[in-house]
Amino acid sequence: MPDGAVPVLDVRGLKTVFRTRGGEVHAVNSVSFHLQPGELLGVVGESGSGKSVTMMSLIGLLPSPPAEVRAGEVLLDGRDLLKIGADELRDVRGAKIGFVFQDPMTSLNPVFTVGSQIMEPLTRHMGLTKAQARDRAAELLALVGIPDAKKRLKDYPHQFSGGMRQRVMIAIALACDPEVLIADEPTTALDVTIQAQIIELVKDLRQKLGMAIVWITHDLGVIAGIADRVMVMYGGQVVEQGPVRQLFSDPRHPYTRALLKTIPSLHGERAARLQAIEGQPPILNAAPVACPFRARCAHAHDRCQTENPQRRAVDGLAVGQGHDVACHWSPGGAA
After folding, report:
1. On the chain, which terminus has fewer CB atoms closer than 10 Å, C or N?
2. Which is more confidently placed, 5 or 117?
């Protein structure tokens, strides 16, 4: 983060726990990151790494109980979202932060028209009349590339294809011109062609509207093409973070390196065999006291078994401002 730059979103030491019959699950463990205005931050990691839970914790989308945000600060324009009331938080979700979920069919209400679902945040948060909200809803559908937008306001979710439903979800998320858009694996349920269309749509909207975006995915190939910075999560923690080009060209954490080896490549004399990451993700039934990746890491040593590594700068900048890694094996020097 450049000197003097003020992030639109600043998350510090976030911890989220789920209380279950079998005990507590420590899903998010001291996660810190920031988001600059207009920036696209890619959040990557395998299933269960804490990506979605982290982002849903920010804006109160987790059911409580069993979820409990136990510590941290979530500063949006300097205001801590963890300290405001439920009504204020609902206003933030509608007006300041937009959220696009993974499966549009389960996110959209099947008994209401898409027009009414787009109009709801416009009337609630922006005070528009029904006529004004209807006109704005048509503009939003046109903005996300749905033809005959005015006519389609009367249609129901089942009358749209999967890709079109995801466009409707993006229109709803953009309705109140949010400062931050969080997209939680928005292309996972779509075929490859439609995925590419949605990615191009988001890139175009970002350029037009200038919003900051958090893009959650397990697909590093997507992140390489759209992100400014990448945050790699494992075991509910940030294990590496940095500018996309620097992290891809010089990954320092063994988990990041392993993830990059799972990406198919067309370069070289022959296609390299994809490498799997052996082992299973950790069971998060206690607060971490050791490296969460130690059981799957070829470089693990005694210190990894007893001490959870803290993020350290790789490039001489402060943690969070450049490239940093949480690893005893590669704490910032040569790997």
Report:
1. C
2. 117
